[in-house]
Amino acid sequence: MKKSVIGVLGGMGPDATAAFFSMLVRLDVTASDQDHLHIIVDSDPSIPDRTKHLLEGGPDPLPAMLTSARRLLAAGADIAGIPCITAHAFLPGLRRNCTLPFLSAFEETVRALDAFSPPIRRLGILATLGTRRAELFEKAMPDRTILWPSEEDHRSLVMEAIYGTRGIKAGNLGEEPHRLLVRAAQALIGEGAEAIVAGCTEVPLVLSQRDFDIPFIDPMYFLASALIETAGKGVSE
Fold it and tell me: Catalytic amino acids?
């Protein structure tokens, strides 16, 4: 058996992709450089915006995502992951149209949450409006209560922190997006959230467990862990 090659379908956005690659490397604990898993990253920022498509009928990102997936497959990837939560709305299409096996951040997070003790049933979500419109969390976790910010908070706090002129996608990883997201999270905690979920890959770039007294759940951590574990088991030569 040889170790599997991990593919990363990235670029949505580039900072989140870089953070995910770093997470994969940190989780792949080895004694030397040569013992690390082979990781291939295809970071294509030109993939159309997922939220704009879901909310406004903008360009469909799936064709560009399929092109990226096929590049990964041609380069030798055996399994892959997508460091973008909203892009998981298009994962079924990827799985139907490409032979490269993709792990799901949602499926891996559900497995992880099922192992929590005491159980976490009320999740406060910090995510894009596209993820909310697609009901990705509701579909993946029907046995849990999914709490969203109010419509006003979602636009003025969460979306502003991610997409605003001083937001994360504009390259600002400082105090402003942190302040906005903490405010949104505190409102969710006030509504009874038992954990705050980083429902967008930009969120953990400015928030961490240090900001909260309740669990801070990063689906990318569980996706990266599953990729490392699966790749370590290898494939037949």
Answer: 84, 200
Query: 6-105+221-233 — its CATH code?
Result: 3.40.50.1860
- CATH 3.40.50.1860 in the chain: give the residue spans: 6-105+221-233, 106-218
What distance in Å separates the CA atoms of residue 203 and residue 206, rounded to the nearest whole number? Answer: 6
Q: Is the pLDDT of residue 84 over 60?
A: yes
pLDDT of residue 236: 57
pLDDT digits (tens, 9 = 90+) for 17-37: 999 999 999 999 999 999 999
Q: Are strands 6-10 and 39-43 parallel, antiparallel or unpaired?
A: parallel
Angle between helices 219-233 and 14-27 (to 10 degrees): 50
Could you tell me which of 96, 46, 91, 99 has the C-alpha nearest to residue 74? 99
Q: Is 101 exposed, middle or buried (0-12, 13-18, 19+ CB in 10 A)?
A: middle
Q: What CATH class does 106-218 carry?
A: alpha beta
Q: What confidence category does residue 12 fall into, taking pLDDT thresholds of 50, 70 and 90?
A: very high
Tell me what pLDDT residue 188 has: 98
